[in-house]
Amino acid sequence: MRRLRDEGFEVRCALTAAAERFVSPLALEVVSGHAVYRREWLDANGSGEELHIAAAAWADLLCLAPATANLLAHLAGGLADDFLTATSLAFEGPILAAPAMHTAMWAHPATRANVAALAARGILLVGPVEGPLASGERGLGRMADVPEVVAAVAAAARPRDLAGRSAVVTAGPTHEPIDPVRFLANRSSGKMGFALAAELARRGARTLLISGPVSLRTPAGVERVDVSTALEMATALRAAAPGADLIVMAAAVADFRPAEAATAKVKRSAGAPRLELVPNPDLLASLRALAPAALRVGFAAETGAYEQEAKRKLEEKGAHLLVANDVSRADIGFASEDNEVTVYRQSGDALFLSRRPKAEIARALVDLFLTELSAPSREPTSPALR
Length: 386
What we know:
Layout (H helix, E strand, L loop, with lengths): L1 H5 L18 H8 L18 H8 L3 E6 L1 H9 L5 H8 L4 E5 L3 H5 L1 H12 L3 E2 L3 E4 L5 E5 L3 H12 L8 E6 L4 E4 L2 E3 L6 H12 L3 E6 L10 E5 L3 H11 L5 E4 L6 E3 L18 E3 L3 H8 L4 E8 L4 H10 L4 E6 L11 E8 L5 E7 H16 L13
Parallel strand pairs: 1-2, 2-3, 6-9, 6-11, 9-10, 11-14, 14-15
Antiparallel strand pairs: 4-5, 7-8, 12-13, 15-16, 16-17
Helix pairs in contact: 3-5, 4-7, 8-9, 9-13
């Protein structure tokens, strides 16, 4: 509930009798800021209002977390013998269930039939996942982690204004091998690119994330391809870019790589090696030929004043948008959870997005991408690009 409120949702909670054995209604009232729905069916003030009908009318989305085998069976059978199931039966919006139960219960034919029936009615599922169970065993049946449930709620609740569009996002660093144990790299965390991929998927875009070596969880609804080097990223991009509506180049691709990687570990006793570097392909610049109809977005991670360099890249690389930020600042650098960017555009004035969490920056950028995608013409107009 806290994480949903962090995402901007107003949350009200309905507790079953079984749930009250695990969590205090008062705790949920404090967290949500609203009275908790329990077993009462009528307004205690004597208005005669049916609370389950009022709750169903108030909500935009109903999230059932955790959704036990018993609750799924009640929903599949259309039963309404407590406040939550009665509200579910009266609710006309999207319903998202996060199943949680023992592995054997999840695998039982009755549960499988109930899940199939609910899916046929359009009820959405997130999880379950494999992990430790309440029984002390490990198996498939654990409720999806909170970030996954929140992402699924956001995806179901937000306007799917990019439905029917396809997007490719690159993220993270590249590792250019020197020998089997060493490489050239940079400090990119991949967080901004992953936030963008997550937001694009929430908004309905079919999203492919091409990621360099990072330890981030794949966002819900996103297809992921892992690569290590700039050449591997170029290969993945050549396969994915043609036909894409939007390509976002958030990865910090190494500009150079060793001309030859040693096949065995370079020994210190042999003295300092001499590295000959050769340029990697310019992936952003290659997109004009690979995906001429796509909206092409570049990123420029600079240290200090970046306006001149950002404008140069926008002009020379055939991008429609160039997102620039100062990674020398600890508060908005690669590892930070926040960012602050300026977006330079071929089609208009620069747009400054002040410091805020990267997820919020991603939302603002996707709003801008949608506006650009809807424009009658988006080909760069710079004479150098004609």
